[in-house]
Amino acid sequence: MDCGEDICEEAHIPKTIYKGGNEIPCPPSKQSIGRFGWGLLHTIAAHYPDDPSDDWKDKHQRFIHAFSRTFPCKSCGYHFHQMIKEKPPKLENREQISVWTCEMHNEINAMLNKPVFPCTLESLDLRWRKGKPPCTATINNL
Ligand SMILES: Cc1cc2nc3c(=O)[nH]c(=O)nc-3n(C[C@H](O)[C@H](O)[C@H](O)COP(=O)(O)OP(=O)(O)OC[C@H]3O[C@@H](n4cnc5c(N)ncnc54)[C@H](O)[C@@H]3O)c2cc1C
Predict the structure, then answer these.
(1) Could you tell me if residue 56 is left (phi over 0), alpha (psi between -120 and 50 degrees) or otherwise beta?
(2) Is residue 38 part of a domain?
(3) What is the DSSP letter of 142?
(4) Whose CA is nearest to atom 24 of ligand 1?
(5) Residue 51 domain-assigned?
(6) pLDDT 10s digits, 4-31
(7) Do residues 26 and 15 touch, judged by C-beta distance below 8 A?
(8) Contact between 13 and 34 (Cβ < 8 Å)
(9) Domain membership of residue 89 as a residue range
């Protein structure tokens, strides 16, 4: 479905129901691409090395920049790119990049009037790495 914008809002997009009963927009909406995008960024950060090589840090830095420039919601990607310029990724270890990614996400959450997430490694690991509750439930209503 083409709404004439880079990526359409969820309200304009028909839903497909997949196994398990989840409704997923088809094609993906701005909101679902956002969810998938954050899922990828947080999950990569959750598996970042504790002691990365310079090559690893460089690759991650390039990935974040490429992500912001190729994200299909162009206004979101442009905004993210500006945020990265002001607060470049912290790449020294897993905790730094996990917390940095969380803080970036919280800036967007605040702009969209969504609740902010607790940016501790413990909360982030529960949500994005360990797969135990509250991974499948909620943390502070998120
Ligand atoms: C880089 C990027 C920039 C974006 N910019 C915009 C924009 O400018 N305008 C716009 O309308 N939309 C933007 N979006 C989309 C927006 O952020 C949401 O993804 C979208 O509105 C769907 O929101 P959601 O409520 O499903 O949860 P999402 O915000 O997508 O979050 C998904 C899940 O992540 C967890 N979570 C929430 N906050 C955090 C956090 N701080 N740290 C770790 N985990 C967390 C929660 O469990 C939540 O359910 C952007 C997305 C990305 C990836």
Answers:
(1) alpha
(2) yes
(3) -
(4) 35
(5) yes
(6) 777 888 877 777 777 666 777 888 899 9
(7) yes
(8) no
(9) 32-130
Reading the block at residue 8, the tokens are 């359409």
Residue with tokens 């679902």: 32
* Domain assignment of residue 118, yes or no: yes
User: What CATH number is attached to the domain comprising 104?
Assistant: 1.20.120.310
Judge contact between 80 and 68, C-beta under 8 A.
yes
N- to C-terminal Cα separation, the chain: 30
Identify the CA nearest to 102 among candidates 52, 140, 57, 59: 140
Closest CA to ligand 1's atom 10:
76
Q: Tell me which of 10, 22, 38 to substitute to probe ligand 1's pocket, judged by most ligand atoms within 8 Å of the beta carbon.
A: 38
User: What confidence tens digit (pLDDT) does each residue in 39-60 have?
Assistant: 999 999 999 999 999 999 999 9
For the CA of 68, the nearest atom of ligand 1? 1
What does the block give as tokens for 89? 């990724």
- Report how many domains make up the chain: 1
In a domain, 2, yes or no: no
